[in-house]
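The freezer alarm interrupted the setup, so I double-checked each line after restarting. Inputs confirmed:
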Amino acid sequence: MFDVFINYLKSKFILTDEQVTLIQSVCHLKKLRKRQYLLQEGDVWRFNAFVQKGLVRTYRVDDKGLEHIIQFSSENWWAGDRYSYLSETPARCNIDAIEESEIVLITKADYDMLLETIPALNTFARMLLERTFVAAQNRIHADISFTAEEKYHEFLKTHPTLINRVPQHMIASYLGLKPETLSRVRTKK
Amino acid sequence: MFDVFINYLKSKFILTDEQVTLIQSVCHLKKLRKRQYLLQEGDVWRFNAFVQKGLVRTYRVDDKGLEHIIQFSSENWWAGDRYSYLSETPARCNIDAIEESEIVLITKADYDMLLETIPALNTFARMLLERTFVAAQNRIHADISFTAEEKYHEFLKTHPTLINRVPQHMIASYLGLKPETLSRVRTKK
DNA sequence: AAAAAACATTGACATTTGTCAAGGAAAATT
DNA sequence: AATTTTCCTTGACAAATGTCAATGTTTTTT
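Predicted 3D structure, all chains:
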């Protein structure tokens, strides 16, 4: 049931059988249909969420009703609204499924317990956060430096597997472009 | 000599006198003149750097020689190229002083030792990283969603103290705008 | 105090990107 | 298989932002 998740963890650091059992005991499986919300704006996000299968998006909606995609999370990635999680305030993000998905949820209390009990998980979690931050800074760099065309090619490089799974207008949203602009950028080359 | 740094740490968590002494024993003070490099592209970044006084910028230079500012770090903030630090590869960022500055440097080896020796520092470092990541995501959101004018007002809100210390063309660079555009945005209101 | 360098503003114009509307293709649903 | 919905593309035009050049100001250096 949590095989993908456990294998992911095992590929990152060493786990004893007891630790595996402990982790599994706090995991909850959530299945999402396409378009189903994992988190809706206004609710507090209280989990660590790992995508075992499928693809979800994290996005915000502005005053004009436009969606702006902050992140895609496919298999073996994490999803969530870290701000809501840390501050325990209502989320400004929505998360929903682009494809039918399978998510492993662990509550904050359980996750903190795991961090304390399993030192290797703690170390891994920090490394993951560090790398995630580096990726975020690279994206900022692209956002402030690149033209529409360069942004698109950067996306192809950094997310090669997503191109065929994510509708183009969502890639445009992620890049801060209008769908028409992305369409033109793509045909130009 | 490291008073500002030690007071910063003490304001974040409790430190014993021995821990203070230990920390001080691995700190190095670096004074920067205006425009002096703290890190130059191509060198490997090997430190944790805390700004005690002054103001530095982290930026990248593109093919056309244009500078794109990733981050400003003033008193009581950190600076560095985390990617270079983690991967021990040549930095793509430059860091230099906007004002005469005073930086506390701790090497990676010493910093890791501190993390292991002082559990409260470890916890604090993770919390700091988490909050920094949230801030980075908020900036991404602004970059992909806002108009030039909105970006500027967001900057006023999130960095109120920097407006009078950072030349406008650098704020423009941070926001991904041209200096002329920022100038026009400012006078329009 | 004078000279030099860096900085900000403005105008005229170019380019990029966005907007709106329409049509057709692809995918999901019935 | 038919229908509906979502998605992508295209054209004509609008708006936002960038480019270039000139000028005056401020700040830094000498």
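Quick read of the result. Residues 119-145 of chain A form the longest helix (27 residues).
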